[in-house]
């Protein structure tokens, strides 16, 4: 269970994605960031979740929202997963589990839990999802961002 709350400063991160590029939270000041933690590449629930984000990714980009998936899998696993399902957003490799721990998204020693953090343009946490319907999650996140922005 995460120890973070809405309004807290989002923990910083700097991690490599499936293409070897390094992404850091500080690079997205002034933009919304969606950071979704998922347990494991190429498993049924995780595949449904990332594919729901894939299918809505154009809507995220149109609104200027940066989307990141994150798990403790390595870059090679992320690369194969991204290619298999035509994922065009970054999957970050938290192989040392530091970021999963910082966000409280690691309840056991093997996998990240399914959490999503909406990080506001001021880099504070705008919303935390700890119960996720993998089929509808991408829509739920967009709707929540729209409500917060009203």
Report what the structure shows.
By secondary structure, the chain is of the alpha/beta class. It has one domain (27-149): Glutaredoxin. It is built from four helices and seven strands, in the order βββαβαβαββα. It has a five-stranded mixed β-sheet with strand order 5-4-3-6-7. Strands 1-2 form a two-stranded antiparallel ribbon. The mean pLDDT is 92.
Brief description of this entry?
This protein is α/β, with parallel strands linked by helices and 150 residues long.
Q: What's the number of helices?
A: 4
Shape: globular
Largest sheet, order of strands side by side?
5-4-3-6-7
Element-level helix/strand string: EEEHEHEHEEH
**Portion of residues in helices?**
25-40%
The name of the CATH topology is Glutaredoxin
The CATH homologous superfamily name equals Glutaredoxin
Which helices and strands occur, and which strands form pairs?
Layout: E1 14-16, E2 22-24, E3 33-37, H1 44-62, E4 66-71, H2 75-84, E5 91-93, H3 98-102, E6 115-119, E7 125-129, H4 137-149
Parallel strand pairs: 3-4, 4-5
Antiparallel strand pairs: 1-2, 3-6, 6-7
Observed structural traits:
globular; 5-stranded mixed β-sheet; 7 strands; alpha/beta; 150 residues; single chain; two-stranded antiparallel sheet; 31% helix
